[in-house]
Amino acid sequence: MVMRLVKDDDNVELMEQPDELSDQANGVEQRIATPTEQPDGAVEDSAADESSESADIRVDLRTLEALLFSTHHPLTAGRLAELLELESTKPIRRAIKELNEQYVSSDRSFRVEQVAGGYQLLTTPEFGDVLKKLHQREVDAKLTKAALETLAIIAYKQPILRADIEAIRGVACGETIRSLMEKHLVKIAGRAEIPGRPILYGTTKRFLELFGLNSLKDLPQGENQLRPTA
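Above: the chain sequence. Below: its structure as tokens.
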């Protein structure tokens, strides 16, 4: 089993290829720099995309839309390119822009948004109130007020010690943190360089997905509240 490279601007993504290609790879030693994990860039126009050779590659918008509709989790540009058998992610990004233009022109209630470094179909904010009524019971069952407060502290202060979380909330948070870890919203982010090496906590990629964030830089500031997306 060998890996095929898919071009993603300056990053490199690896895709699996059939075993019969492995003979061609024998004896060839390649050194590939592993890029720092970064979220996909914003969906915006790029002159470089239009001038590249990939500008001639057309993506079936209906197929791309079907892929986005069929998943509950974000799909990266690289994964979409793999599913559509493309060598580069540039046609994917251009096609997503085209889809969003169609949605805007036809006044649809959803858009392709960037979430946790990938792409996902989400409803527009104007429908948040009515959708909140639909999903409120489900959200309440998943996150209690104590859990949401603890999660917010971890999100904004990470990496953070349990003692610091409890100092902010004024109550013990052990069970709440354990519950958030079971829901895959909080993870162990390391250990502090102090006596006893206590555990540091941080948020997960699942946290970004649940709250509709592309990265931690998108956390609401000021009076805006951190809340799950509908």
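Residues 2-123 form a domain with the Arc Repressor Mutant, subunit A fold (CATH 1.10.10.10).
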